[in-house]
Amino acid sequence: MITLALSKGRIFDETLPLLAAAGIEVLEDPETSRKLILATNQPGVRVVLVRATDVPTYVEYGGADLGVTGRDTLIEHGGQGLYQPLDLKIAQCRMSVAVPSDFDYASAVRQGSRLKVATKYTTIAREFFASKGVHVDLIKLYGSMELAPLTGLADAIVDLVSTGKTLQANNLVEVERIMDISSRLVVNQAALKLKQAAIRPILDAFSNAIEKNA
Ligand code: ATP
Ligand code: MG
């Protein structure tokens, strides 16, 4: 049995066409079913639904053989124990710094001010500001980062941006692009060896499908 860990929403939706290319069809809709284990048309393949941030943990410890997870989540997790064979080029967005439109970020940085930065992505934010030589106090949040500068909790946020509409709706502007983000396939290292015969064809089909999309 091969177990694939996915999170509900965009990662699940955007992985479906890749699974189809591998001849795998998920038999239940996670938006209507309450099940956390979903059968597929292949008796030897199942999908488990976990929180986006839990996907690397499931795959690292063998709760799942394979998983799909954002580069953001992988960096924060550390990626230890995971084989990362493919950038699936799905769930594409970017990690950025944003501030209220009336905050002069450039001069704050120039003057060497200490910045209060709210984010769910403390590893990425810490490394980014350290590389710029900017001193920051990081405030760890688990969601709704946009609210932090509006309430005085922080001067800036580090968050994922795709269209920029959420920032705009909250009077925030993007002032730095830290990195491009997309989702990757991750594989449990032991499973890759022990279940090669089942995993290899899935990797090959995903890889061919990505090339066609490119
Ligand atoms: P949860 O809702 O369980 O707390 P989450 O909010 O991190 O988790 P999603 O918002 O579905 O879950 O994000 C999952 C992954 O999708 C992220 O880790 C990121 O790689 C990617 N992602 C997030 N936001 C966007 C976006 N606006 N556009 C494209 N991809 C995105
Ligand atoms: Mg979410």
From TrEMBL:
Name where it's found: Cytoplasm
**What is this enzyme's class at the first EC digit?**
transferase
Return the EC number.
2.4.2.17
Identify the main location.
cytoplasm
Which superkingdom?
Bacteria
Report the catalytic activity: 1-(5-phospho-beta-D-ribosyl)-ATP + diphosphate = 5-phospho-alpha-D-ribose 1-diphosphate + ATP
Q: Which GO terms describe its biological process?
A: L-histidine biosynthetic process
> What's the stated role of this polypeptide?
Catalyzes the condensation of ATP and 5-phosphoribose 1-diphosphate to form N'-(5'-phosphoribosyl)-ATP (PR-ATP). Has a crucial role in the pathway because the rate of histidine biosynthesis seems to be controlled primarily by regulation of HisG enzymatic activity.
How the protein assembles, per its UniProt entry?
Heteromultimer composed of HisG and HisZ subunits.
Comment block on domains = Lacks the C-terminal regulatory region which is replaced by HisZ.
Q: Which family does it belong to?
A: Belongs to the ATP phosphoribosyltransferase family. Short subfamily.
What protein is this chain from?
A: ATP phosphoribosyltransferase
Q: Give the source species.
A: Hydrogenophaga taeniospiralis CCUG 15921
Q: What gene name does this entry carry? A: hisG
